[in-house]
Amino acid sequence: MKGIAYIVDDDAGVRDSVRYLMESVGLEPRVYASAPEFLDEYEHEGPACLLLDLRMPGYSGLETQELIRARGIDIPVIIMTGHGDVPAAVRAMKLGALDFLEKPCSDQALLDKVQGAIEADARKRSKIAQEDKLRTALSRLSGREQEVMALVATGKSNRDMAELLGVSPKTIETHRSNLMRKLDAGSVADLVRVAIVSGMVEGGKVESGI
Amino acid sequence: MNRIGDASVFSPENPHQAGESGRTALSEIPTVDVDQLVEENNRLQQIVDALPAMTGYVDLNQRIVFANRQLESWYCLDRDTLVGMSLRDLFTDEHYQTVETLLEQVLSGKEISQESIISYPDGMRRDVHLNYIPDLQDGKVPGYFFLVRDISVRKRAERELRQSYEILDERIQRATAALEASNSELREEIRIRRETEEQLRANQEWLNEALESMTDGFLLFDSNARLVAYNSRVLELYPSNRGKLKPGISFVDLLRFSAEAGEVVEAVGRVDEWLEERMMDYSNQTGSVEVQLSDGRWILATDRRTRTGGVVGLRTDITERKQAEEKIRQQQEQMAAVLRRASMGEMASALAHELSQPLTAITYYARGSLRRLEKCRESFPDVVDALEKSTKEAERAKNILSHVGEFVRDSIPSVSDHDMAEIVNAVFELAEASLRRNGIKWRKELPESAVQVQVNRIEMEQVIFNLIRNSIDSLKQTPAFDRWLTLSVELVPQTGCEVSVCDSGAGVSKDVIDKLFEPYVTTKESGLGMGLSISRTIVESHGGRLRVDSHYHGGAKLVFNLPDAKTTDQ
């Protein structure tokens, strides 16, 4: 799994060695000596995670976490704590860290956690991307097509829908094939799933009113 | 007089009616011989003449009928001239006026007995006793007898006596007056004396009262180190002196009683040596000596020489002060111990941290290299082996460090429930003297209800004390009029209990602020730079964070928080 590992650590040796280690497994490391440096350069790109040293001069790991949240940056955070510093780890998790690592930690544990975080980020990103795509597709449907889609998702037959909407079954059929094409759905099951994901229906019930 | 009365034979009518009635009378006594009568008369005349008084008979017309010799000699006239002479003629006017009333009275039948002073023709002025006796005959007074006695001698004696009485009296009066004067002088003197005594007594009482109301023991010694005055407080401080504390006793004896009674801790088992030392202090006027008593009290003995060569000794009970000093000393020792342990731990943990960083880097470089060599391990077996060994060695070093870390952590004392405001107050008490000494004004802002925190008290005290001490050090460089410090405890919803120490000093410069909490970083001329580092370690071991409030610009404001605090309010 490829991805970007953002590393904020005030110790130059640790910073560079972590970078070297990440590169050896094909990750794309980006290293920063302080939180402001990271915040200045960060851009929302491919799947990534942030490795944050808890104990740093200036902004500590916890303060950086707060700054990240305040700026609306959505990135999984792994906090590096001192050995046995459980209270700090607990506070990091409370502030929304995905995970924490006790220093010193083995390279394997570090890589596992980083890759795990990147994978989670990737999943989250693809889900968001899919939802965005669906939302865009749904927004392209006409009002009548949206009505038909909502009724299809609740399991209504063409005849019932024609009666409900006051049109001929033939017209319903046309709407159905159009919206299937627009949403790139191969079956009624796909259509139902899209409706649920997009929030159009909930628990299989019709939400849009007639 | 009766005798003279008996001489009525030659009286009264005789001189006047000698011709007829005399004869008639004589003829009535035929048996009497004329010669005999003459003889009798002469004898009478002789007797009357012999009287030491002037006497005679005066008739109704104030004419002298009979006179004795005394009359002749006083009036310098012979009897023949005198007899038949009117008193009006005989007397001077002055004389006559003096007796005129008396003569009238006697002729009216009243006997006169009176004293008078009369000048007589013989040139003598006499004190006389006048005695006029009416010649009463059948209720008529044909004349009267007179008897005038010279009482000049008696009168003079009387006068002299009176005079001498008067003189005496005057003398007595004078003497009395003098006596009274000296008496009143004496009385005045007594009064003044009494007043003075009263005043002295009042002064003495006032002085005694003042001495007795002193909370200190008071002793006054003369120049020979003998006790002159004291108050009873001395006895309360040195019960062994009871019965011995009397004026006149010497200073060294009093000391000896105390020392021998075992009252003085320092003197136990070495009375003489101690006495010598103590007397040296006394004679050298060392000022004050702190003496510990065996009942646990401490006395400050101050002996000062007076202008007159005596010594005023004050004995002050300083037990409370000593106890407070002892408490502060113990607390400071405790803190020093915490500081030593904490700085040892801090140094160890700083070392562990500092070393673990490069060791981590070594491991990652080696493991990164091994991963890069994954596909061609067989080509470089020695390199792979060496890299694996180097990661193992780094691992070993890290294990050693983590043992050190555990050792340090194990030495961290346990925590218990405390009220943060109470801890702050306790530390403040310790720091107050230093704040006062440096002219720093302060303010405490504490919540009304207790702020419950789970901390190691001594460590927390150490942190707060350290922050206050930093502020004091900084404020010493600030102008004296602008030195203040605020200490506050506050319960903040997100961060828990926030304790801040805020001062008006120079503040923390930007280039230091990032490194402020690192070990061996300091802005002070002296000091290791471990204080804030240790403080941070302590705060973080309690789950809190110590930071500089960078928004504060009036000086330095250091804040730490303890997340799991709660108020005991309600």
Keywords:
heterodimer; A: 210 residues; alpha/beta; 5-stranded parallel beta sheet; 9 helices; 55% helix; 12% strand; B: 570 residues; alpha+beta; 5-stranded antiparallel beta sheet; rod-shaped; disordered N terminus
Q: How many DSSP helices of chain B?
A: 18
How are strands sequenced across the largest beta sheet of chain A?
2-1-3-4-5
Query: How would you state the average pLDDT of chain A, rounded?
Result: 83
Largest interface: A-B, 29 and 29 residues
Give the total of beta strands of chain A. 5
Task: Determine the oligomeric state from the structure.
Answer: heterodimer
Shape of chain A: elongated
For the sheet with most strands of chain B, the description reads:
5 strands, antiparallel
Which percent band covers the strand fraction of chain B? 15-25%
Q: How many helical stretches of chain A?
A: 9
Largest sheet of chain A: 5 strands, parallel
C-alpha end-to-end distance of chain B:
140 Å
Give an account of the 3D structure.
The complex is a heterodimer of chains A (210) and B (570). Chain A is α/β, with parallel strands linked by helices and 210 residues long. Helix content of chain A is 55%, strand content 12%. Chain A has a 5-stranded parallel β-sheet, with helices on both faces. The longest helix of chain A has 34 residues, at 107-140. The two termini of chain A are 47 Å apart. Residues 204-210 of chain A have low confidence and may be disordered. In chain B, β4 and β5 form a beta hairpin. With 570 residues, chain B is α+β, with helices and mostly antiparallel strands. In chain B, α11 (251-260) runs antiparallel to α12 and α13 runs antiparallel to α14 (381-410). Chain B starts with a helix and ends with a strand. The chains are: A alpha/beta (210), B alpha+beta (570).
